[in-house]
Structure of glutathione transferase:
Amino acid sequence: MAGKPILWYFNGRGRMESIRWLLATAGVEFEERFFTTREQYEKILCDGVLLFQQVPMVEIDGMKLVQTKAILNYIAEKYNLHGKTLKEKAFIDMYSEGAYDLMVLIMAYPFLSPAEKEKQLDLISKRATDRYFPVFEKVLKDHGQNFLVGNQLSMADVQLLEAILMVEEKKADILSGFPVLQDFKVRISNIPTIKKFLQPGSPRKPVPDENYVKTAKLVLQF
Ligand SMILES: N[C@@H](CCC(=O)N[C@@H](CS)C(=O)NCC(=O)O)C(=O)O
């Protein structure tokens, strides 16, 4: 039997967090290796393990995978979280990318100056309420099913829940105008593996703090 996947990243959310969410949803246990120094990172770079000299990197099924989307798609396919038909897969990818684009705005936030942070908060709220959440609200309302695509749980649902919770950490009442998404949030949060991931003590990472920002800057030298 293959060993547990090993996740190489920082001890924080960033681009790895959606991967943690997806593995946890699938009920897959994983190990993590955290970069804390530039030397560690240079060693793995010199070993040629990071194909494009970037993380996240995930060791899984004898491969060393990089590129977040490739990793997510592999996990989604493997654990039946990527729909059944080509068309379902296309919609799952489309919705996942929308949720991910919203999350990218939040991922950038801790690295900004105080003045930039204020603007970014406005942008996050605006994008959530004017662009992304209305789409997901309408999709769920129009087909009246529990999940975004194909009436079964997929990566799109998982990433949407992740995005909703991330935006709520910045603006608690962000779902006030989205009753269908409020129900969606409760429903998906109660899926047993997800519920477990949302409990304290799980591998879910907290809101990035100064230490996370400092470590990422030190390791990646920016
Ligand atoms: N397209 C890549 C981008 C990965 C990426 O930008 N990773 C950052 C850390 S979150 C990194 O390694 N930056 C160092 C670099 O680009 O040299 C992905 O989605 O995985």
Summary: Residues 14-15, 53-56, 67-68, 220 surround glutathione (CB under 6 Å). The first strand starts at residue 6 and ends at 9. Residues 83 and 90 are 9 Å apart (CA to CA). Strands lie at 6-9, 31-34, 57-60, 63-66.
